[in-house]
Design goal:
The complex is a heterodimer of chains A (878) and B (111).
Chain A (H helix, E strand, L loop, with lengths): L1 H16 L1 H25 L4 H12 L2 H12 L2 H19 L1 H30 L10 E8 L4 E2 L3 E2 H10 L3 E16 L2 E10 L3 H5 L5 E2 L11 E4 L1 H8 L2 H4 L3 E4 L2 E8 L12 E4 L12 E9 L5 H18 L6 E7 H41 L1 H9 L4 H37 L14 H28 L2 H6 L12 H34 L9 E7 L5 H19 L4 E7 L10 E6 L12 E7 L3 H5 L3 E4 L13 E5 H8 L8 E4 L3 H4 L2 E7 L14 E5 L9 E8 L7 H11 L5 E5 H44 L1 H9 L4 H30 L15 H27 L3 H6 L2
Parallel strand pairs in A: 5-10, 7-9, 16-21, 18-20
Antiparallel strand pairs in A: 1-2, 1-11, 1-12, 3-11, 4-5, 4-8, 4-11, 6-9, 7-10, 8-9, 13-22, 13-23, 14-22, 15-16, 15-19, 17-20, 18-21, 19-20
Helix pairs in contact in A: 1-2, 2-3, 2-4, 5-14, 6-12, 6-14, 6-15, 7-11, 12-15, 12-17, 12-23, 14-15, 17-23, 17-25, 17-26, 18-22, 23-26, 25-26
Chain B lengths: L10 H12 L2 E2 H11 L8 H14 L2 E7 L5 E7 L1 H25 L5
Classes of the chains: A alpha+beta (878), B alpha+beta (111).
Chain lengths: 878, 111
């Protein structure tokens, strides 16, 4: 049966696609018939002329028959569409200026949307590039008393979760950071993750070369390296397999190379077995990031229920687990949680841009439709059906929309290129952002929708045209009385209102950013050089070697010309992984297990506060005498003093933390320093405990050296590198400045602010163009009326005032609606604001001022034109 | 000469399918064949022949092919498709049933 349809469709297609050829074939078929019939008639004794005449007559008129046959073959709507498109293109080309304005306006709106949707598509919507990625979850402790998750879990909890659950195929953890690695004897920093055996199973990793380790391998010293790292250091994935590297102070054989697309977590260089370093055995030591893979067919809810039941059992069993439940989150959501708000915010903003663009386009189309009232009336008069006219106008806006869509995709592509160049490195998955099929589909759908939106109004107007009135009126009046006052007003009001919302959003972000970049960090960032080092530590005696290395290095740096002060610090400000711990004061308030207040822990060497210019408020800085074997000491910040001591004197009191064995026995407070924003510029200072490095060499392989200098920090780089190399050539060093870290910490808010502001300004520019065009058209329409009024003695000043007044009344309504809308809308922005209230009066007043002034300017030009109408010319046109 | 009776609706299609089923042929031959077989009793005006043929072609019952015909000129030859053959069988069957029924009615004796 289907073959029949093939024949049928083919015959019709032929008629459409090759209509000329099909016409020719028709003629040929008929003329063959005539020739045969003529021959036949001749053979029956007719004259040739008569024979041919009869043959033609029998066919009943060749032309008529051809028409009939052609109609039979054609598909009417395609023919109509072809007509409409041809006619639409002609109309568009006839009014080049308006058409260009429509296409460009629409392209800007569509382009902005396509670009932002590409970001959302790549970052939030498309699955992670791992097998069964939708089943990969992050498993984290959830503190029920504070309602927050903790990114890391304890090892015993992990083991219990893994043993007792029935919903996961695999559960694994990873922990790590930057360590020293030696490749062919060259020291370097490498991002190393210690992972449990199932880690690769969670992600379904099939190595590019070699293999990943299994249970049977342990506890051998093995490593899997990333594709990029293998290529950089060994030339290719194949070449890396079998090589020996030294990492985390141990030798390890590379047994496999991960595929190029595998990058978890972040940009890891080397994965090694977790057995390399003893696990923290306590349930209070949260050091491990846990990921798992759900069993096929297990829902997230079922998994949560199962895991929570286990956590509840653990909570009953172990006092340390009080208030500790568990959260199961799809890994994709986890990775993109911070970007999510920003991207939806951006989508909101560009939707506003598109809305304003569409309103502008609708207005231009209405103007065009009004100008064509007579033409449409003529077409109706000679028999065009209303729906045929509607279809024609819609085809036209569809054509414009399509042209705008194509141009918009170009705009999107350029915008996207700009983004990716500008985007800070910590937005996840930017490699996955591209204009793909889904983006095309989205853009096309939005275009169609918008074309209908800005086409349907003019189309209906055209179809409703009053034929008689349009044809009777004066030809020049074809445009008069075109648009209703209400339509015009709503254009202006809507555009102003949406602009207010977008500008308020942008204004709040700008104010936040300014506040953020001016925030008092509590430490200096200018002229502070940071030297990051990592002393390779294998055994216990290496700690002493590390300590003497750092002591000598700091001495050496202090002796360099231009150096004011130098000191060491364990974790640089703004670095994510910071140690924290519950603390309590001996003789102070006691807390039940698990409810002690939390303090950030920082390990420093003497001179740190002077180097970063954090004022010591009370007591003293550490000295070289605060070392192992001497009384344990600590310095706390003012925030901790306020929290733990209130008005009483903290000096000489003893503080304990669960951080290390040493700190559990208590440390005497010898000083109080000013608060500092160590976590991020936006996070308020937390309670902080500073410990002397010499009493807590701990996992002491890493220490950053901060140097306060009167010179350009970069000028010290060479001499510090040389000093370190002389002391120990196996220690890698890397340089940056505090200013760099600060800039990096601000790069994300900056990116967000720049984008939102750019789109908001685009929206406002479009809105102003809209107001200008509405008024210009209004004035053009009323030229004759103005002429009459001038002739009757009206003052030009009054004409000017009337136009401006009318416009500003609308702008004012728009401002009021916009401010109300903004106050409702910006509540969703709370989390991205810093130091300003969402109802910040300064921003709102500023936005109103800016819009009022610019709208006034946009109205002034048409108003001036109205005021300078020459009554003679205007009346002569009548 | 009295006008031959109008063909019943749809009957022309049946006749055309049948004639084409005998052998692939062009329009003129089909019209000749129709006159000849029916002893001039069934006459299709040439003006309605071609629309009917084209309709069958568009419906996919027959398909057309250009071949050199008489007079050494290219002519459009129509062939039955497989679907057309099935259609012909159905139509024929249908025609038999209807004509039998009509005949039966006409054979009723008046009383």
């Amino acid at each position: 049966m289907w073959r029949r349809w093939i024949y049928a469709v083919r015959a019709r297609l032929r008629a459409i696609v090759r209509s000329e050829r099909s016409d020719r074939e028709l003629s040929e078929e008929l003329s063959f018939h005539i020739a045969m019939e003529t021959e036949d008639n001749v053979s029956r004794g007719m004259s040739r002329v008569e024979a041919e005449r009869r043959a033609r007559l029998d066919l009943g008129g060749v032309q008529q028959l051809k028409e009939d046959l052609r109609d039979q073959r054609s598909v009417p709507w395609i023919d109509h569409l072809r007509q409409d498109v041809r006619y639409g293109v002609r109309t568009i080309l006839r009014t080049k200026a308006i058409s260009a304005a429509v296409i460009v306006t629409f392209a800007l709106g569509i382009g902005a949307n396509a670009a932002i949707f590409s970001l959302i598509n790549g970052v939030l919507l498309s699955p992670l590039p791992y097998r069964g990625s939708e089943r990969i979850v992050a498993v984290e402790p959830f503190w029920t008393n504070v309602g927050r998750t903790n990114p890391t879990s304890s090892a015993p909890d992990f083991r219990d979760w893994r043993a007792q659950n029935s919903v996961l195929d695999f559960l694994a953890y990873h922990t790590g950071g930057e360590f020293t690695a030696l490749v062919n004897g060259t020291p370097m920093f490498a991002s190393i993750q210690l992972v449990t055996t199932d880690f690769f199973n969670v992600f379904g990793v099939l190595p590019d070369a070699g293999r990943v380790w299994t249970e049977q391998d342990q506890p051998a010293l093995l490593a899997v390296v990333s594709h990029a790292w293998a290529v950089t250091h060994f030339g290719s994935a194949q070449a890396a397999v079998g090589k020996t590297i030294s990492a985390v102070g141990r030798s390890a054989e590379i047994i496999g190379v991960a595929p190029a697309r595998f990058a978890y977590p972040g940009a890891t260089d080397i994965w090694m077995p977790n057995t390399l370093i003893p696990e923290t055995p306590s349930r209070g030591g949260h050091n491990y990031f846990v990921v798992g893979k759900l069993k096929e067919g297990v829902s997230l809810d079922a998994a949560r229920e199962d895991m929570r039941a286990i956590a509840a059992r653990l909570e009953r069993e172990y006092p340390e687990n009080r208030f500790k439940s568990v959260a199961v989150t799809p890994l994709l959501d986890k990775l993109t949680s911070r970007t999510r708000t920003t991207l939806w915010l951006l989508l909101g903003i560009v939707t506003g841009v598109l809305f304003i663009a569409c309103v502008n386009v609708a207005h231009l189309q209405l103007v065009r439709a009004a100008a064509r009232t007579r033409e449409v009336a003529v077409r109706c008069a000679i028999g065009a059906a209303p729906n045929r006219i509607i279809r024609q106008v819609l085809t036209e806006s569809g054509l414009l929309g399509f042209a705008g869509c194509v141009l918009g995709l170009v705009v999107a592509w350029l915008t996207l290129k700009g983004f990716l160049a500008l985007a800070p490195a910590d937005i996840p998955r930017l490699d996955d952002v591209l204009i793909d099929g889904r983006v095309f589909l989205f853009t096309f759908a939005v275009t169609t929708l918008c074309s209908l939106l800005f086409g349907i109004g003019p189309a209906q107007r055209a179809a409703r045209a009053d034929v008689v009135a349009s044809l009777q009126s004066h030809p020049g009046r074809g445009v008069l009385g075109g648009l209703s006052a209400r339509m015009r007003s709503s254009v202006v009001i809507a555009e102003v209102a949406v602009s207010v919302v977008l500008l308020v959003a942008a204004g709040l972000l700008l104010r936040s950013f300014v506040q953020l970049s001016r925030v008092d960090l509590g430490f200096a960032t200018d002229r502070v050089l940071v030297t990051t080092t990592a002393f390779p530590v294998r055994g216990a005696d290496d700690f002493e070697r590390a300590t003497s290395f750092y002591r000598a290095l700091i001495e050496g740096v202090r002796a360099l010309p231009g150096v004011r002060q130098a000191a060491g610090v364990r974790t640089m400000p703004f670095v994510e992984q910071r140690a924290n711990s519950g603390y309590s004061i001996v003789g102070g308030r006691t807390y039940p297990q698990g409810e002690a207040p939390i303090a950030q822990i920082q390990v420093i060497t003497p001179g740190y506060f002077a180097t970063v210019r954090t004022p010591v408020r009370q007591g003293r800085d550490f000295t070289d005498d605060d070392q192992y074997g001497r009384p344990q000491v600590a310095i706390v910040n003012e925030r901790l003093v306020r929290e733990a001591f209130g008005d009483t004197d903290p000096m000489g009191r003893v503080i304990t933390t669960g951080m290390t064995m040493e700190s559990m026995n208590g440390m005497r407070i010898v000083g109080v320093v000013a608060d500092a924003r160590q976590l991020s510029p936006a996070t308020p200072p937390q309670p902080e405990i500073y410990l002397p490095y010499l009493q807590h060499p701990g996992p002491g392989s890493r220490l950053a050296l901060v140097t306060d200098t009167s010179l350009d920090p970069d000028s010290l780089v060479a001499s510090i590198r040389e000093a370190a190399r002389k002391l120990n050539p196996d220690v890698p060093v890397r340089f940056s400045t505090m200013d760099d870290s600060f800039r990096l910490a601000l790069s994300y808010p900056r990116f967000r602010t720049v984008l939102v502001a750019a789109f908001a300004f685009l929206a406002v520019a479009l809105a102003l163009v809209g107001i200008y065009s509405v008024l210009s058209y209004l004035v053009a329409e009323q030229t004759q009326e103005i002429g009459v009024r001038l002739a009757l003695g009206a003052l030009r000043r009054d004409i000017f005032g009337a136009v401006i007044g009318g416009s500003m009344r609308l702008v004012f309504s728009g401002l009021v609606i916009g401010v109300v809308g903004a106050l409702l809308a910006v509540r969703t922005m709370q989390t991205v604001l810093f130091g300003v209230s969402p109802r910040d009066p300064l921003t709102i007043v500023g936005v109103i001022g800016v819009l009022a002034v610019t709208a006034l300017a946009a109205s002034a030009i048409p108003a001036l034109r109205a005021a300078s109408v020459d009554p003679l010319v205007a009346l002569r046109d009548e | 000469m009295s006008k031959p009776p109008d063909l019943m609706q749809g009957t022309l299609d049946l006749l055309l399918l049948k004639i084409i089923a005998l052998a692939p042929q062009h329009g003129w031959a089909i019209s000749q064949r129709l006159k000849q077989v029916s002893d001039q009793e069934l006459q299709v005006s040439d003006g309605s022949l071609y629309p009917a043929l084209h309709k069958l072609e568009l419906a996919g019952w027959i398909t057309a092919e250009w071949k050199v015909g008489e007079l050494g000129r290219r002519a459009k030859f129509y062939t039955l498709t497989r679907a057309g053959r099935r259609r012909l069988e159905q139509e024929t069957e249908h025609w038999r049933r209807v004509s039998t029924a009509i005949t039966r009615v006409l054979q009723l004796k008046e009383v």
